[in-house]
Sequence to fold (506 residues):
Amino acid sequence: MYDVVIVGAGPVGLFLACELGLAGSSVLVLEQEARPGSVWRAMPLGFRGLSVASADAFHRRGMLRDLLVASGAGDYPVADPDADEAAPPARVGHFAGVPLDPGRIDIAALPFRLPGPAMEPVGTSLEAVEGVLSERAAKLGVEIRRGVTVSAVTQADGHVVAHAGDETYAARWLVGCDGGRSTVRKQAGFDFVGTEPRLTGYSMLATVADPEKLRPGFNPMPTGMYLRALAPGHLAVMELDGGAFDRSRPPGREHLQAVLRRVSGTDVTLSEVHFASTYTDRAKQPTTYRRGRVLLAGDAAHIHSPIGGQGLNVGIGDALNLGWKLAATLRGDAPEGLLDSYTRERHPVGAWVLDWTRVQVATMSPDAHGRAVKALVHDLLGTRDGTTYAYEKLSGSGLRYDLGDDHPLAGRLAPELRLVDGTRLGDLLREGRGVVLDFTPERRLREAANGLDERVLYAAGPARDDLGLDAVLVRPDGIVAWAGERGFEQAAFERAAGRWFGCAAV
Ligand SMILES: Cc1cc2nc3c(=O)[nH]c(=O)nc-3n(C[C@H](O)[C@H](O)[C@H](O)COP(=O)(O)OP(=O)(O)OC[C@H]3O[C@@H](n4cnc5c(N)ncnc54)[C@H](O)[C@@H]3O)c2cc1C
Fold:
């Protein structure tokens, strides 16, 4: 029996498989596609934007360089990771098609930003992400079986079984990473609640007879939006049709041309459509991410429109959050309630991404309500506070879990703290363990950290930029579990270590 069966070898399933493999769990990934890669996963249709937080996740597992090479992102990073101070963000993104001006970001409002190798978003493809993760998963001993379509999931005492045809695969835990139409979600009896669609979206590669009739980039229009994207003929169109298009059949050339003409307000001609797919802005998630021994992550746990490009980022965040908690549960050294903190921490992030996309769709609505929201959004994004707020959301740097600790760093993604000897937090996190950084000259936490044995790495020395701290405890997912200011109480560290790594440790 495996420790974990993961259904779906998409980016989230593979990321999770790597996390579990790194922590020593035995993992089987079941994937319905017989072969990796397809036109939908390669550029340009497979283009995906990874946030700064996702880039950081790859850095913190030692995969950023491989990802950049696979993505052809030769001009990354934009700024020097060894500089004394972090450079202002150079790339930000857009909100509802309104580009955000990096010059309007209030750097002083981002107090924990330190220079590192992952300071900007990465333009990549599903193919590149999955390629890098598959290779790493194989090195970590993860087994990936392709051409296996899971059709049912049953739970019994102490284990769970995935069924595919006549084959069964048993494991102590099963995670559905099988995308928005998740079979696992349905089979395991999760509810799925939210809102119905207001638009139909189309992603296509076409031959356009008269491309000059379409403006490049994002074009918010009265009845939707169109985007002339990365390559000639690569188009994205969203039409506010109330989700009326029947998606059970592929859209034909005439339909696509009619939609594009209506939305763009031109008489543009599509002479040929090579590939086309559809999506909606239906926005739903289950009320819990765990039922018994079955968990959900990625699109299986939250669906919404791709506007704003956050689905993959939130999914990677799910995998990073779940991996170490599930591995500790399997080893038997998880403190009480650790696995339940997965839903508690990640469900609100899923709920946020649903709302983040809903509000962008609302700004596109052609009626008076939509125009009012759009005017307000434009005004807000014209301010420093508005742009800074949007940057924190888009980059992932505003993420903060409620850990019940009011230190401003607790629950946040740890900044890239550095020791004077050149050691970086990101490098220490590569092994997927927790990290204690101790900046006190007397190495106050050495003994307590040693008591946590394999679960944490201890690194001590003067900090290059200590942010006013004497010590920090970082969870394996890069989240600050505890931050100790000058003259901190040892007992506070021990409470946090006990909460996240088990009481036996201290
Ligand atoms: C046009 C578009 C643009 C986007 N742009 C961005 C962006 O810029 N940034 C961003 O963060 N997100 C973006 N997204 C969203 C992003 O692509 C998804 O959130 C992400 O792919 C989800 O990953 P996943 O692994 O959860 O699911 P998927 O990528 O859907 O992978 C699920 C896997 O499970 C397999 N599977 C399904 N059912 C079964 C079964 N029964 N048995 C076995 N295997 C099964 C599938 O074959 C697939 O390999 C975009 C989405 C679209 C449609």
